[in-house]
Specification:
This protein is of the alpha+beta class. The chain folds into 2 domains: about 140 residues, Jelly Rolls (Sandwich); about 80 residues, Orthogonal Bundle (Arc Repressor Mutant, subunit A), CATH 1.10.10. The chain has 8 helices and 10 strands. Strands 1, 2, 3, 4, 5 and 6 form a 6-stranded antiparallel beta sheet that branches. The protein has a 4-stranded antiparallel beta sheet with strand order 7-8-10-9. β9 and β10 form a beta hairpin. α5 packs across α6 and α6 packs across α7. The protein is globular and about 55 Å long. The N and C termini lie far apart (about 55 Å).
Length: about 230
């Protein structure tokens, strides 16, 4: 076990909740993975063979719905885990994991993860809670696609990203990850043209400032109004 692995596990807002003995056991059993932008860690429907902890970079989770449309469900950053479904015997990944920024990860194969969960029940409880939360997020994304206007969906997507990767600047709150209009189209189930038109209108109104793969939310409260459909 290296000090770096233990430090990464302990620094995770999720795994850091575990007792010291469980964190040390996880660190001792960890393998290392890395990937460049565009690399796939796993595909939707693949056997869920590994749990991952992101230690650097970012990963996006995507899912293809019954109609064949792919949406971005979530962005995973340093300290967060993905692939917790590997704890479930015979499970497959419900999403695909693609590296968004060059990433380093710790990885635990399914057999080792199940052994650790049997020895440290808090790990099983923690992972089960994260799985439930992620499944709820997937359901929410598809509910939004079915029931909300494009402007609402786009506003909600930006607000989620502000919570996940927001960084305060002199202009407002910058979403601190590379974010193209195509990414936003995939997050909201709409077209590149519609996203570009909507962002341009919001930029003219002073709600956001948009650059190349960059979005700054200038007035978050205005986005909340749009997301909650209060304008109507």
């Amino acid at each position: 076990m290296g000090d770096a692995e233990l430090a990464a596990v302990s620094a995770s807002p999720q795994l850091g909740q575990l007792p010291e003995a469980a964190r040390r056991a996880l660190a001792a059993a960890a393998g290392e993975r890395s990937g460049g932008r565009g690399d796939r860690l796993f595909h939707q429907g693949d056997p869920a063979n590994h749990l991952f902890l992101v230690t650097a970079g970012r990963v996006k989770l995507t899912q293809v719905g019954p109609d064949g449309q792919e949406i971005i469900v979530r962005h995973i950053g340093p300290g967060e885990i993905l692939g917790g479904i590997a704890l479930v015997e015979g499970a497959v990944y419900p999403v695909s994991g693609e590296v968004l920024e060059p990433a380093r990860l710790l990885a635990w194969p399914r057999g080792e993860l199940r052994r650790l969960a049997e020895e440290h029940p808090r790990l099983a409880l923690l992972t089960t809670g994260i799985i439930a939360g992620r499944m709820h997020e997937i359901q929410e994304r598809f509910r939004e696609l079915a029931t909300q206007r494009v402007a609402q969906r786009l506003a909600r997507a930006l607000l989620r990203l502000v919570r996940q990767a927001g960084r305060r600047t002199a202009e407002g709150v910058e979403i601190d990850l590379p974010l193209s209009r195509q990414d936003l189209a995939e997050m909201t189930g709409t077209t590149l043209y519609t996203v570009s038109r909507t962002l341009s209108a919001w930029e003219s109104a002073g709600v956001v400032a948009v650059g190349r793969e960059k979005v700054v939310v200038v007035h978050p409260h205005r986005l909340v109004e749009i997301a909650e459909d209060l304008e109507r």
